[in-house]
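Why do we care about 3D structure at all? Because function follows from shape, and shape follows, mostly, from sequence. That is the central idea of this module. The next example makes it concrete: a single protein chain, its amino acid sequence, and then its structure expressed as tokens.
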Amino acid sequence: MLKKFKAQLYAITLSFSVVSLFLLFFASLHHQNRQKILNRNFQLKEVQKLVIQDNYYLGSFLLNESATPEFYLNQNSYYFVLHQKINGQLGDYLTELANESVDEYWVDSFSVIRDSIHSGFLKLIDLQIQRGFQDYGMEGKMRQEIHHIEQEGTIDKALVLMLRRHEKDYIIRHQQKYIDKHQELMNEALIEYDNINPVVYVSLINYALYFEQLIELDKQIGRMGTQGLVPQLNANFKKAELLINGVIHNNNMQMERLLVVYRYSYWSVVVVFFAVMIFISVYISNRASRQLHFLGNAINTFVRSGFKKTTEVSYKENHNEIHTLTKNFTILQSEILDYIQSFEEKVDEQTFELRLQKKEIVEQNTEILAQRDKMQEQVDLISYQHKQLETYNTRLTDSIFYAKHIQQALLPSKEILDEAFSSNFIYFVPKDVLSGDYYWLKQSKVASKVCIAVADCTGHGVPGALLSMLGISFMNEIFNSGENCSPAVMLNQLRNRILDVMTNTQTKKSLNDGMDIGLAEIDYSRNKLIFAGANRDVYIIRDNELIVMKGDNMPVGKYVISRPFVQREFQLQDGDNIYLFTDGYNDQFGGTKNEKFKRKNFKKLLLAVQSLSFEEQLDIINRMHKQWRKDRFQIDDILIIGFQYNANHLQEMNKERAKLAEKAVS
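And the structure:
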């Protein structure tokens, strides 16, 4: 270890000399750096060629391959295979460029664009397969539906040709005006031909839906407007080319700078630097070593005397660092002596202040501990209240779901409905966990009669569910009191019981809650339908004709003018389809204009599905509701019951039950 300052300066001089030699050595590396830059530029240009080739494959897929049936049969793209090969080559080049010290941010950015192009190409193929061409995909589905409409011959051929013409114009040009013309003509067709064969009407609806889905797929692909997958891919290709050109430009600039340094200044700077460093090192060593020697002796004497004996050291008044250090040392000697003299006094004063501060700290700690105990009590109280709230919330949620099981247990099962009617469906979609809608069914054990009802109580959720359970209980009591299924009598008695319950005997105030209900009696012995309704109707469809049996315009509950309910009769035939329903389906907002579905559309829907089985009717009704509502909020409970009248069905079921009873006795 070097102890003398003079030796340290010589060491510094030697270090600068070594650095100068290294600079001379690095000059010989200039050629190697230039060669590396040229190699990087060559690799970047190869990457640029691959990007351009990949962009060409994307365009070839859109212009050529996507318009061939072979692509949709095999669902494999020849150009995507070529793209994957290029994608792998790009990955290899990026690895090599990363190893050659190319900017890591550039490599990451280009990798992100490369991955985005790959995933976009893959998604484009999937969307194109869904869209289809001619007999495939969405175009194929549209062609099947329009051919079916043409074969049926119930719609004017000129109208069909105009629809096809607007469709082809859109597929060729992808302009909004052809979409508007097609939709305008389709709306006119749906209104003009709403009474045609229901199967053709459903095909017409499906054709319109498939056309809308085709437009949506074109928007996602990028054939419509400036948005979509294809513009995004083209933008990514442009970004990739800009990134490559930027790096090539930076490499060229770097190479030019190396050439300038090498040609004009590098060697001269090295020689001058080497000579100056040697001169300075020798000069500083000779000049500073003498003064540092005197200063070192003075410091050593002052320290050995226990910081009590001062030593005079001469110095010159200039800006030299060593002379400044000497001057400061002389000042420091006097300051240290003064400090030692006053140190004991200051220690005593500070000791007294520390004792006072310690006393204050003890008092503050005592107060802090008391506050901490109070805060802990509050934290414990809050924690207890939080646990109580969680327990209450869990119990409330469990109670609501248990109430749902109780409510479902009170409703007739599908098996009971199958016993009463050979063909039927129940479409029951509560708005919340609990429902304010309910349905009720009882079969007379003596007469060949079945009573069935659908009801919509005031409100939904818990209040509606409580009122629905009250209604089911009252209807069971009324029916069991005398096996009387007369609809008007039952509604009158039900209203009296509801009003009695809703009247507060203490305050003499009555609630306005009640229910809308449609109650029908099916008399198999007389082939009769007897109906009474409170703001509810019943639909009967026979031979594609919809017959409406009206109910009374008043609820079961408190009303301005209450009068007895009137019941109406209808002569039934085998094959009649009967529908009871609440207003939740018709009142649902949706569609393109966010309006209610309305009764007229509900009637058209029922007529359109008459040729289908009740299971298929249920599926169409459910899909139509979801398509109409989409992602909008459900505003009310929904309940629809449909069944077909068969005069011999109840007798056959009773005979079966009798046989089972005899077997059980024997």
